[in-house]
Design goal:
Strand content: 15-25%
CATH superfamily: Alpha/Beta hydrolase fold, catalytic domain
Largest sheet: 8 strands, mixed
Strand order of the largest sheet: 1-2-4-3-5-6-7-8
Number of helices: 12
Number of domains: 1
Order of helices and strands: HEEEHEHEHEHHHHHEHEHH
CATH topology: Rossmann fold
Shape: globular
Structural class: alpha/beta
Radius of gyration: 18 Å
């Protein structure tokens, strides 16, 4: 697996985007067709681009691909924690303009799903479709005042935990399989204890703020919900059930998978994404030679 992923990363071209606060790192791959669709992968809070390695492998050469390490995550560090989800959406759109990304399918896991929704509200008409993986809506009606208070004050719950205990709890809470847990363990080990706690607490806070500021309108593009049947992150499963029922969105339950269902069971998730996208009018994958590093 490691060798295969290293080969993949050698195929992807590294890009950097400078903001007033710091530098954002991302990877991109383009196929040799001007009509190829764009798939954009947005990892969740504290995760990095390796969270989507099995999706990148599956869709390489079939579509243009872009995945980023969000600010303060992965290689996009150090980066001061003084931005909002709206700022992330603006920087993402600027990267799209720089790379020639058009009509992207936004594929967001957890916080990446929140960001996708903020992006679509801030830049209506840009995205072609949305795939939510173990994420939830930013609609205010889905959350109580207590829910938002807890998100804003998560530091008081995270800080007292010994670092070794917090690492173990994060890994167990994110994935159910050896594959998924190994991936999350490697991600978490990049951080020092204080950096991780500050990032997690900050992320939860800006999620709460985005929920409070979000439009009450639902999604304006075709969307697919994907959720692990053993996702124990908050009330993810319950909220996905409600989201699907209220918005009449299709939902795929990934049996036995946890919060990082795309790593716990990449085959099921990749098949679900493929089936959904090929059902969209005018959408088609390409099978062509990948353009090398530019």
């Amino acid at each position: 697996m490691a060798a295969c992923y290293n080969e993949l990363m050698n195929t992807l071209r590294t890009g950097v985007f400078s903001t007033d606060l710091g530098v954002v790192h991302y990877q991109v791959s383009k196929v040799s067709s001007t009509d190829a669709p764009w798939l954009v992968f947005l990892p969740g809070l504290t995760a990095d681009s390796t969270l989507f390695k099995y999706q990148l492998e599956a869709f390489l050469g079939r579509a243009n691909l872009l995945v980023w390490d969000a600010p303060a995550h992965g290689k996009s560090r150090p980066f001061p924690l003084s931005f909002s989800l709206a700022d992330l959406a603006t920087w993402l759109q600027q990267i799209f303009l720089s790379e020639g990304v058009t009509e992207p399918v936004l594929i967001g896991q957890s916080m990446g799903g929140y960001l996708s929704q903020v992006f679509m509200q801030k830049f209506p008409g840009v995205a072609r479709a949305f795939v939510s993986i173990d994420s939830v809506p930013i609609l205010r009606s889905f959350y109580s005042d207590k829910d938002l208070w807890l998100l804003k004050h998560s530091s008081s719950f995270l800080s007292p935990m010994p670092w070794s205990m917090l690492q173990a709890a994060t890994v167990r809470g994110s994935a159910t399989t050896p594959l998924g847990r190994e991936n999350m363990s490697l991600i978490v080990k990049q951080y020092a204890a204080r950096e991780y706690v500050q990032l997690a607490a900050f992320g939860y806070r800006i999620i709460a703020e985005a929920i409070e500021q979000a439009s009450s309108e639902g999604l304006s593009v075709p969307a697919l919900l994907i959720c692990g049947t053993k996702d124990r992150a908050g009330e993810i499963r319950k909220l996905n059930q409600r989201w699907s029922l209220m918005s009449e969105l299709p939902i795929v339950w990934v049996k036995g998978a946890g919060h990082n269902s795309n790593v716990d069971d990449p085959d099921t998730v990749n098949q679900a994404i493929t089936k959904f996208l090929t059902s969209l009018k005018g959408f088609s994958f390409f099978k062509e030679t990948v353009i090398g590093k530019e």
